[in-house]
Amino acid sequence: MTAWLRRRQGLPPAWLILASVIPFALVALPILYVAVQGYQAGIAGILSNLIRPYTLNLLLNTLTIAVSVTILSGLIAVAAAWGTERCDLPGRRWWRLSVALPLAIPAYVSSFAWSSLGPWFQEIQGAILILTFYSVPLVYLPVVAALRSLDPNFEDVARSLGHGRWRTFRRVVLPQIAPALGGSALLVAAHMLAEFGALSFLRVETFTTAIFDQYTAEFNNQAAALLSGVLMLICLPVAFAEAKMRNRRRVARIARGSARAIVPIALGRLTPLVVLGFVTLTILSFGVPAVTLCFWVVQGHSAGQGLERVLPALMNSVGYALPGAALTTLAAIPLVIATTHFRGRFALLCDRLPYVVHGLPGIVVALAAVAVAIGFLPAVYQTTGLVLLVYVVLFLPLAQSSVRASAELVPRELSDVARSLGKSPFQAFLLATLPNLLPGIGAALALTALQLMRELTATLLLAPAGVVTLATEFWNYTSDRAYGAAAPFAAMLVLISGVPVYIFTMRTLRLNDAR
Amino acid sequence: MTKFNRRIVLQGGIALAGAAMVGGLARRAQAATALTLYNGQHRATTEALVAAFTKSTGIQVTMRNAESPELAAQIAEEGARSPADVFFSEQSPPIASLQEKGLLGQIDPATLKLIPAKYNSKDGTWIGASVRTRVVTYNKKMISPADLPKSIMDFGTAALDGKFGYVKQDGFQEQVMAIVHIKGRDAALAWLKGLKQYGRSYNGNRIASTAVENGEIAMALSNDYYWYSLAKEKGPETLNSALYSFPGDDAGNIFNVSAAGMLKSSQNQAVAQRFLAFMLTAEGQEAMIQTTAEYPVLAGLTSPYNLPPLSGFTAPVSPADMGSASDAYALEREAGLI
To answer: Cβ A213–B338 below 8 Å, yes or no?
Structure first.
């Protein structure tokens, strides 16, 4: 037991262990479900089903999409972040917003928009393109937050030692933004493994679409669970490799200090080219889907149907997303603190497991919740509380990576100082560590709330009967092909999603101005 | 001072989130309604049906809407403790999968007799509620009606290489089973292999019929209502695509049904039986066919959607013959299609 809890600098306090065990247990449930179901399916028979050209092809597609999207969106995001934070780009404030803006558009909306442009976009290259543009903000925002909290003195030292700009970036900046970059890239990778909504408009088959086939064509919950197990196995090395890469470095510093203002790099003649790059990015990632949405409203014969539901759906979307985001962030904090400040194998396991589960399709997690709730707690089945708990399981990693980006920069010694002044461990956390996590917590709330507002499967299967959200209404009308009627719900979803995106972006702006 | 305030805010936030959680868990089943319906059929259609039922009987109905196969998976997972009384599925295979798992109760014989037996399950555990047909959607600019294939079996031959799309869901399994019933297993296997070799697979019927409409592909195997819903959205006169069915008793001329049944575990079987019976009354049928381009199962009613007569669809297989159609899955696997 002590070996499990062993870490570099003393045992984590009891409250932290307790607080980490709750999300750990929640996340472990779908894994247990998959294991039990897979076992019942009889592994031998299924293995022979798995090992055939078709599934190998699925595996190839899944990995191609996950790897390409992660790398491409990482490159674009870091370049964009460098452009808006470190270069004298005209209108930086607006470009920041415009890079973050596509976050407000659900993947299935942009996927539908792109796929209607022609068959090329329905193949795997189209999927990579669509999902890359969709993922860029997910990496961009944490990287920007990390870039802003860097102490430029490190870079000055590197430059004074004769390092060039590129070398300084690689040896000083990159290691410091690595937690944010690695965390969000991992998030994108895990998300791509589970992506279904966007792909359903395209002609690409992945492991996740095959899992849905097991439900829709064979009605075989067990076989589907076993396929999900394979998907988790793919997630496993990704989740731990990222942690391993990150754990070697310590990038905390005591205070923001009196860092000098950053002198932006003069772009000079490159300016028009860089601006063109940002314009293209905005058109591709935001313009195309936004124009398509407007087109639906004007074109669709069904426009105007169900308008009376827009307001209740909006209220429900917000009413589920906000407490869901709060709970998810709350669950993420102890996991992050346990790994960043104490380390140890058990902490690492608690911290990584949510990423593995994030690679599961929503239907698998939702059915796991059905099985557990019906079997052990029938009183909570199909209540708001259960949906919120499932949201935590589904979206925990989003909150974790945002909180971690802040936590990595907070030295553990801060809480030691508080302890030496006679505070209890929990008080020390509240007084010394938590206030420094606030930027990350704000980001976590915004990102989680965004994703929760478009969650569909768990809401449909587990919310109290009759609950309509913007996402369920959008699904309802598009599945009946009434795009005109669906458009107001999608537009409202985009508009309301814009709020957290805007708040988050402006907030990081203000932080910078104060410095 | 600011630290103190921050702490209050944080603690308050934690307490609020906790309270929301507990409140959510406690807000259980206050609205105990008379009938719980899991609905996979088009929501507007079922809402019209439910409104007519409530108006006629005064009984309230609580609906849970999702895709039919997901609801079937959910009911299978819930087992005997399912809160559902009635399941209304967009297609018959999801409900047949529950029939095969023994989760459905017997429907009143009087209800079953209201419509032709070919629409119902053989053991009387589910009823057909509305009918649509399997068709070919084709692009009028890309292929002339005279050149259209004469049989479903022509698909999957080199003659149609690159000219057609197919969708491995929503009606496809039934199509495979129909070919197995009429032409035999080997023919079905060869047909599937041909599809894989010469056709283009789409991830959904809607996407495939849009591809035909946009001229990306000349033909697609589909259900008819996808074209009718497109016609409704864009106006039929503006469409580039049209529907075609094969001449004579072809294995491609099959119909499929939306289907409903009562859960064996229902605590509310009398009301569930009443609801199922109501679905097959003129009133219930009228509510459904007004809102979706599907044929009624009850004789003597006409759809307002200008559907061609159903008389050509005489293939000697019924939805009940196809069951959950999961056998088709094994065949597709053998053909390398999945």
So the answer is: yes
